[in-house]
Amino acid sequence: MLDLVTFIPRAVVQGIPLLYGSVGETITEKTGNLNLGIPGVMYVGGIAGVIGAFLYERSAGSAENMNGALAILIPFLCCLIGSLLMGLLYCFLTVTLRANQNVTGLAMTTFGVGFGNFFGGSLIKITGADVPSIALSATSNWFRKTLPFANTTGWFGKIFLSYGFLAYLAIIIAFAAAYFLNKTRKGLQLRAVGENPATADAAGINITRYKYMATCIGCMIAGLGGLYYVMDYANGIWSNDAFGDRGWLAIALVIFTVWRPNISVPASILFGGLYILYLFIPTGMNLANKELYKMLPYVVTIIVLVLTSTRNKREHQPPESLGLPYFREER
User: Is the entire prediction scored with pTM above 0.85?
Assistant: First the structure.
């Protein structure tokens, strides 16, 4: 029988990187930019945070000498800066130079993974570790700290209170993004840029500024997913090529949630649960069944894509200018 008190927290932990990635990509796509480089952005965000944490731990000397605020703030800011640079690179290529968005996104994914593996491998050589990984357990302990009364509230604490601050921050960002896009003037102008940039331009909205701002902010949010994966989910251990396909699942989640960040919260937990469901279903020695259960997230993704293509309601469709460059001369 499925133990929900154990299963739900693990599903949440699996789903938080997807939540960061999907919310960041949703904000980006709302301006018409299709950023397929989200997996690379998450990778760069993760390795940037690892570099910051590694340098701080080395300078502190021991866990006792580390300041908790700095242990969190330094990797956090490094992650945001690395992700921001990836967003600026994407915008420069696709908005300023009007390069093809699909090709640019795929190139950035390849670049981000290579960037992370290069610097990750370099740090592993500096440490002289016997295994190909970096352990930043002292920094991870600060990121994974839970509420002090979480262990005294039974099943409620395990399901709702047993997470680090980055998990709660992801949920706050998702609902804040939904409010911004639907209830504020700036949010409505941002959506107008993605729906019909020519009309928005004629109304005096700065198309370039909105595309740059939304894409860069979206990349910084997605980059936090990489930081969460390393510092919270992986207990501060960085290994090259360890992210798997979470970045691509985050992009699929955008379609699954019909471009609504608030829906991403339960949807990411659902996908996170499907990702680890095979661990909780007894299969005995039958490895074939276990591999079939591992396919569940991808099967659901395919079904979602099929259902999306049959939707007729306008509110369930992507922004009209998604993936298309804007030429003011053609207005």
Answer: yes
